[in-house]
Amino acid sequence: LKASDNSDNSKLTDALKEADIEARKIREEAERRKQEDEKERMKKQMKIDRLNAIPEDAEAGTVEEFMYKDGVKEILEKLDTD
Question: pTM (2 decimals)?
Answer without folding.
Answer: 0.51
